[in-house]
Amino acid sequence: MEFKKLNAPTLKELFVKELESQILSGRLPIGTRLPPERELAATMQISRTVVNEGVIALAEKGFLDIRQRQGIFIADYRKEGTMDTFLSIVNYNGGVLRKEEIRSILELRIALDTLAIDLGSKDITDSELSELRSLTEAIGRASCAQDAAESAFDFHHHLALFSGNTLLPLIFRSFKSLTCTLWLRFCDLYGIPALYENTNELCTMIEERNFKGAGDYLKRSLSESIDGHREIYY
């Protein structure tokens, strides 16, 4: 029997979480001016250093707008946010992905995966095709949904790597936990064999260098989930 080490959150982490909660719940609407840092520190009974560091972290996530000689304001995180902002939204919901967030992830995957296939089609090597086949078969051999989801991520991440575009694999990896969550859902609903079958069909098209067919298949498959024809929202 194994137990994980428990780490208590720091005061800065608690401060950031508290303000994120108030912003995402709407208790602190966009455009609201926060009290001065000194006042926040006194009210929350923490040091001004903790407040300052927390404010900077929240600004980097797009939640706050720091204006010189004017103050600190609640920013429109939809315009100013990053992937870290999205993760904060998911964590605020208890780690549960809402329908609009699932749709956003799937729409982004259509853009990234089809671009990876299009770019990779120009000079993908036999060795790279062999790697994709190995990752596909790893899904079929997976003994649990977690292993299958990890192998599915590796397959699509390698597609991004083989595209030759430096940023694609970095972008794809930045939301690994979210995409793996969706593959876990898929396995719960349809089973590991269904995930293997889908990936195998895509891999076979790429092996046959039918890149247009592979891109169309990927779009169609993900669009079915976005439209609700293949249930994945729950």
UniProtKB/TrEMBL annotation:
Residues in HTH gntR-type domain copies: 9-77
InterPro entries to which the protein is assigned, alphabetical: GntR_C, TF_FadR/GntR_C, Tscrpt_reg_HTH_GntR, WH-like_DNA-bd_sf, WH_DNA-bd_sf
Keywords: DNA-binding, Transcription, Transcription regulation
Domain of life per record: Bacteria
PROSITE patterns: HTH_GNTR
GO molecular function, one term: DNA binding
Pfam families per record: FCD, GntR
SUPFAM superfamilies noted in UniProt: GntR ligand-binding domain-like, Winged helix' DNA-binding domain
Alphabetical list of PANTHER family matching this protein: TRANSCRIPTIONAL REGULATOR, GNTR FAMILY, UXU OPERON TRANSCRIPTIONAL REGULATOR
Listed name of the protein: DNA-binding FadR family transcriptional regulator
Protein species of origin: Lacrimispora xylanisolvens
